[in-house]
Amino acid sequence: MQLLQQVVAGRTNSVAGSLCVDSVNLDATRYLLYGSGADCVVYTSEFHLVQSLRNTNNVGAVVGAVGMSPVDGTIAASYGRDVLLFACDRSGQTAQWSYLTTLVHDADVICLSWSPNGQILTAGATVSIWENVDEEREGGGASAGASWRLTWSSRCGAEGLRSASEIIKAAFSPDGRFFATFGQRLYAPLNISLIRSQSATLQFERFVKVWYRRDPKGRARGLRLVDFGEAGRPFAELNLRFE
Q1: How far apart, in whole angstroms, are the C-alpha atoms of residue 170 and residue 123?
Q2: Between these two residues, 165 and 71, which has the higher pLDDT value?
Q3: pLDDT tens digits for 13-28?
Q4: Is residue 154 pLDDT above 60, yes or no?
Q5: What residues have CB less than 8 Å from 4, skipping those under 6 apart?
Q6: Torsion of CA 54, 57, 59, 65, to 10 degrees
Q7: Domain definitions of the chain by residue range
Q8: CATH 2.130.10.10, applies to 14-234
Q9: What is the pLDDT of residue 121?
Q10: Which of 85, 179, 207, 211 has minimal CB crowding within 10 Å?
Q11: Do 114 and 67 contact (CB within 8 A), yes or no?
Q12: Residue 57: which residues within 8 A CB-CB, separation 6 or more?
């Protein structure tokens, strides 16, 4: 019989049944990250509390999604339309994080995912991809600078993103060449204020969309301009994961 090891403080936030959690290995240490109320909490896999992070510009804001970069440990946490980035300092025995910058969106960010090369996929009513410009110029990690740019974005229901629903789950493939999404239709708008509310009636999509990078027609390969196509198939699950 397996015995309970420890109870960690704070109830984990969830959106539409998807828990606000992530886990990444850094320097042979596995870190567990989750959103609890307004806090973004970091533990080691041995259940030692490392740090609690918060949006100091909006103390009452609730964490909607969290993710840790597998490249350099940068943490992304969504608070409504803002995604806060926290740079990772790995010089000590355990990592520590400090505020880096804020990525502002035009709609609430419900979920996010890091690619293996350090790009951030954010999704909700809009699907967007961000990348660190300083990393390209200087070869450093996200902590090398705070110059992030939006490289691609499409809104649900718009041409090119054939979905009438908000995206509630998104994930990059392990090689970063693809990402997958699925969403839900709502009889009440989904936003961060409904994280603990039962007032929204949810109807999940039965399609998982897989997105791939393609070159715009008539342009040479290798340009920074990007576009994405999509392929869908009926799928009965309420979660997704690349293997």
Answers
A1: 7
A2: 71
A3: 887 667 899 999 998 9
A4: yes
A5: none
A6: -50
A7: 14-234
A8: yes
A9: 95
A10: 207
A11: yes
A12: 102
Which burial class, exposed, middle or buried, applies to 216 when counting CB atoms under 10 A from its CB (0-12, 13-18, 19+)? exposed
* Alpha-carbon distances, residue 166 vs 19, 50, 111, 155, 232 (angstroms): 17, 33, 10, 9, 16
Question: From CA 55, how far away is CA 61, in angstroms rounded?
Answer: 7
Tokens, residue 1:
């019989």
Q: Hey, what are 19's tokens?
A: 């828990």
Query: In degrees to the nearest 10, what's the CA dihedral of 56, 61, 65, 68?
Result: 10
Q: Is the per-residue pLDDT at 63 higher than 70?
A: yes
**What are the backbone dihedrals phi and psi of residue 135, each rounded to the nearest 5 degrees, phi first?**
-65, -35
Query: What does the pLDDT look like over 79-129, one tens digit per residue?
Result: 999 999 999 999 988 899 999 999 999 999 999 999 999 999 999 988 999
